[in-house]
Structure formats: C-alpha cells, structure tokens
Amino acid sequence: MVDGVGVSGVTALERRQQLAKGPLARLERMLEIRAVEDGVQELFAQGLVHGTTHTAQGQEAVVVAIAAATRPSDAVACTYRGHGLALALGVPIEAVLGEILGRRIGCMGGLGGSMHLSGPDVGLLPTMAIVGAGIPVAVGAALSAKVRGTDDVAVAVFGDGATNIGAFHEGLNLAAIWKLPTIFVCENNLYGEYSRIQLTTPVADLAVRAQSYDMPAEIVDGQQLDEVEAVVERAVTRARAGDGPTLIEAKTYRYVGHSRSDKAAYRPAGELEAWQARDPITLYAEQLCNAGTLGDLEGLRAEVAARVEESTKVALASPPAAAEHMFANVLVPAHGRSRQ
To answer: pLDDT tens digits, residue range 83-103?
Structure first.
C-alpha cells in the first residue's frame, strides 16, 4: 500500500465513501470483515502470523455502523481487536492483512502486526495493545477538535472489560466536565478476556455507569446494524452541536475466544449457538431480502470471498519488514548525539 492506495487502485477514503451507497454496501463490508477474520485464523494456523491475533466474528454490525455514522475527519481509537474496525473505516484489505502478516504492504509497513493498525486517511488512530488505552486518546482527540474550532468528533471503541479500569472513568469524567465531542462505544460481548461479565462487574447494563458523569447513555442491540447506526448518529449529532459526550453500550458477541489460542471452553453450553442464531450478517441480509434490496446473497458472498483471497495472495507476495525498517520514521535531532 502506498499513500493509502490499495493494489486495486481504490483508496482508503474511497472505500470509506462506498458505505454511503446504501444497505448493500454495508452488507458487503460486513461480509468482507467476516471473510478476512476467518482468513486470519487460517493464516495463523499455517504459521504465517507472528505473535497472536484477536478476531471479532459476530461483531461486524457495530463497527460498520460506526463507519457509516461518522466521517473520515473524525478520529476513531480502539484496542487490539481492531481488524474489523479498520476494514469498516476503509483501510484496504491487503493493508490490513499485510500488517497482520508483517509485510511491507501493511498499513504500518509490517512493523506493528495484528494489534497495531492505522488509517490516517479515514480517521483510524493507531490501535493499541493495552485494554482501554484508546479511551483517553479519543478524549484527547476530541479536545483537539474543540480547541481547533472544528465540529469533528472522536470515537472510542472498547470492550466490556475496559469499563472496570481507571482510564474509562477518567476519560468519561474529563469528557463530561469539558463537554468534549466524544462518543464512547462499548462492545459488550459478555467476556473480558476469559472472564464472564458477572464475575467481574456488579451491573449487567454497563450504560448505567454514565449516570455518574451526568452523561447521556444508550443501550442498543449490537446485532442490528440499522439500530446501532441510528444510536451512533444521535450521539454524533449531539457532539457536533457542542452538547458533549455519549456512552453507547452495544450488546454483541464474539464467536471466537479471546485470542487465537483460546478455545473458549468456559462458555455455558448453548450460548454460542444462541448468539449465532442472531448473526448480524444473517439478520441484515434477511432485512434486505424482505425489502427487495438483495437478490443474490450467495453471489455477493462469493464475490467478497474472491476479493479477500486475491488480497491475501497480494499480501503474502509482499516482502517482509526487516529490522532496518524500524528506523524509517524515527527522527534524529540535527544536533546532539546521533543514533548508533
């Protein structure tokens, strides 16, 4: 990837703008995310991914809704489970896969890996490997927008486990006090790493925590794309108008364990199957079929699969990042000790 342009010739910004074409474009992006995430697991099994990976099959509706309800100049911060969000915002497939595979074509030149993706052209701040680390960063981005006098907003995306750390409470408190244009989106998938929510958190609805900061909050079905998009749009409208932050809790579920090595054997029997029966892609496809908007789901699925397969080949053909590339973006002062 060069200057945000994928090998297909479509820029990240153009991919982001494709979502504006309507429901079919949103469905296609969800299918793309699912195919990439499934592919990442296969690549890991083949020994082609160094380190670990954190995928999010089942949570596609939330990230696509965020991308559809915001604009490229808005800042978006999240943690290590960011493949889907990067793709939703428009980062090219080969740039995401290339980064996960440690290849030069990756969006960070192959230096960051699975947990460190970035897309400055579409507002994606570098993703972070620390739980909840994107929360204070998003608050800072919102403060920057306010100081600069723009109506841009900042979005922090995090999991339910992050609502128990200090950065969450500090971030919400500061955003509320200064009425910063921040949208806090909690993907409540019931599990913080290996622990189910009732073992770590005394409340079932995490949105109630916004009351402590006199902040508006909404709970939404994270499997229904249109519902999530509407909630995010309301929060964005409030933020752009100068009315401050919002906490959104999206009830969702990830079909896979915490990381690639986690088989999630601790889940109650039948829980996974119950959530898969409410798969966000299936629900949205049924909605479009009923509306007469979608004609050939399997044809669209095959088209997306072929695109992901081709992008995977391109990423694998790209040379790996080398040690010397680590210093490509390190600035050395003109005076003083030089880097050895």
So the answer is: 999 999 999 999 999 999 999
N-term to C-term CA, the chain: 30
Q: From the centroid of its chain, how far is CA 253?
A: 14
Query: 4-8, 265-269, 283-287 — which is least confidently predicted?
Result: 4-8
**Closest C-alpha to 154, from 77, 229, 67, 209:** 77
Distance between CA atoms of residues 27 and 299, nearest Å: 13
Domain enclosing residue 318, as ranges? 12-327
Q: Taking the mean position of all CA atoms in its chain, how far away is CA 325?
A: 26
Residue 225 lies in a domain: yes
Q: Exposed, middle or buried by CB within 10 Å (0-12, 13-18, 19+), for 178? A: middle
Which domain CATH number covers 290? 3.40.50.970
pLDDT digits (tens, 9 = 90+) for 243-259: 999 999 999 999 988 87
Q: What residue spans of the chain are helical by DSSP H? A: 12-18, 23-45, 60-69, 83-89, 93-100, 134-148, 166-177, 225-240, 271-276, 280-290, 297-317
Backbone phi, psi, residue 180, to 5° = -85, 150
Q: Is 303 helix (H, G, I), strand (E, B) or coil?
A: helix
Residue 39 lies in a domain: yes
Q: Is residue 335 part of a domain?
A: no
Three-class SS of residue 250? strand
Tokens of 76: 């978006």
Is 4 domain-assigned? no
CA 78 – CA 59 distance, rounded (Å)? 14
Half-sphere exposure at residue 297, Cβ-oriented, CA atoms within 13 angstroms: 15
Residue 42: is it exposed, middle or buried by C-beta count within 10 angstroms (0-12/13-18/19+)? Answer: exposed
Question: What pLDDT band is residue 329 in, cutting at 50, 70 and 90?
Answer: confident
Count of structural domains within the chain:
1
Q: Is the pLDDT of residue 3 over 50?
A: no
The answer to whether residue 50 scores a pLDDT higher than 70 is: yes
- Residue 73's pLDDT is 97
Asked if residues 56 and 262 have their Cβ atoms less than 8 Å apart, the reply is no
Query: What is the Cα–Cα distance from 83 to 293, expressed in whole angstroms?
Result: 28
